Amino acid sequence: MKLTLEVEAAEGGARAGRVSTSRGGFDTPCFMPVGTQGVVKTLTSQDLLELGATVVLGNTYHLMLRPGADLVERLGGLHRFTGWDGHFLTDSGGFQVFSLDPKVDDVGATFRAAHDGSLHHLTPELAATIQSSLGADIQMALDICLPLPSSREALRRAVDRTAAWAERARAAFLTPASIDERLARGLQQAQFGIGQGGANPALREESAAQIAALGFDGYGIGGLSVGESREEMLPALAAAVSRLPPDQPRYLMGVGDPARIVESVALGVDMFDCVLPTRLGRHGTVLGHQGRFHLRNVQYTADQGPLDELCRCPTCARWTRAYVRHLIRVGEPTGARLVTVHNLWWLLDFVRRMRAAIRTATFASFRSDVLAVWG
After folding, report:
1. pLDDT score, position 23
2. Which pTM does this prediction carry?
3. 349 is catalytic
4. Do the beta carbons of residue 84 and residue 56 sit within 8 Å?
5. Per-residue pLDDT reduced to its tens digit, 227-249
6. Residues 44-103: tens digit of each pLDDT
7. What are the beta bridge partners of residue 293?
8. Cα–Cα distance measured from residue 64 to residue 86, given in angstroms and rounded to the nearest whole number
């Protein structure tokens, strides 16, 4: 199902709009919490609904291994299995696979699972089939994700192989048998392609053009924010965006810090995901209007204020820094949950405020304020 972005307001390259889907749709720019194993750690689907999340990310690598895509399909797909009625986007598993030092050839990637050492072989076709079985609203094509820095030769090979794999993934997704199978399950699924190219603007532009030519339903930009500076990232991102269709969603993968988000939105990016707010939350690091701080620091021992004075999240409405710090220090899981609730609410509110700034033509001022704190 081709996803079209209706741009409702724009300021420079930044745009606020809505992506319509069979499930209803979602507003952009948007941030997608990461539910690696079918759950955002320490939270429930009801929490996500109350926090205002509209799209949640599922991890194909983890879900294909445990509990298995076939079981998820038999139990009604990710939505029924997890009790989440919003949108699901599943990644291809490529990022996790390539972190395991796989053996890669033109056919696919062979790797051993981290949890039990079992041997697996993932191809573009199999990644598409697995994600159809999981039943996400949006699936991602399998790509080659390299760490940065990588040599130009390695980036060149990754761009070429990513393009070849994208063509195979698209063909597998669009076979009559695949379409019929999804329709029989009442599943209207979209498929995004992913561009690569490291921090090299020329390779980024080339890769984006190759992927766009395949007619995907939306477009991911992968392999950034993996070790390069923001100054290195932005020219590469701008080059990629320049070759992507203006009427379809653009998704910068794995980016969650406010400075990179606001700079990427300024270039025309619509969707983001990252483990940053939840991972930091579990370790007692708080996101807020004045930046981020570590709740374990002794200065918060008797602090009776909320985590963030301007925050309206459930945690800040009821509990103090002193209390949540105590929970974090003694290893009480409730502490990790309370900070995670706050961090996700804060970041989801951050993109809500950013959408409002674009709609009221105050994005330039909003961006300046964000970079003054987070830049």
Report:
1. 94
2. 0.97
3. no
4. yes
5. 899 999 999 999 999 999 999 99
6. 999 999 999 999 999 999 999 999 999 999 999 999 999 999 999 999 988 888 888 999
7. 286
8. 21
Say if CB 318 and CB 327 are below 8 A apart. no
Of these residues, 257, 270, 273, 308, which one is catalytic? 273
Q: Closest Cα partner for 172 from 152, 193, 156, 155?
A: 193
Is 273 noted as a catalytic residue in this protein?
yes
Cis before residue 67, ω within 30 degrees of 0? yes
The catalytic residue among 91, 217, 257, 308 is 91
Q: How far is CA 320 from CA 290, 300, 326, in A?
A: 17, 9, 10
Q: Which two structure tokens, joined as six digits, stand for 174?
A: 């669009």
Name residue 189's amino acid.
Q
Nearest to 295, CA basis, from 283, 305, 304, 309: 283
The order of strands in the sheet holding 109-112 is: 103-104, 109-112, 119-122
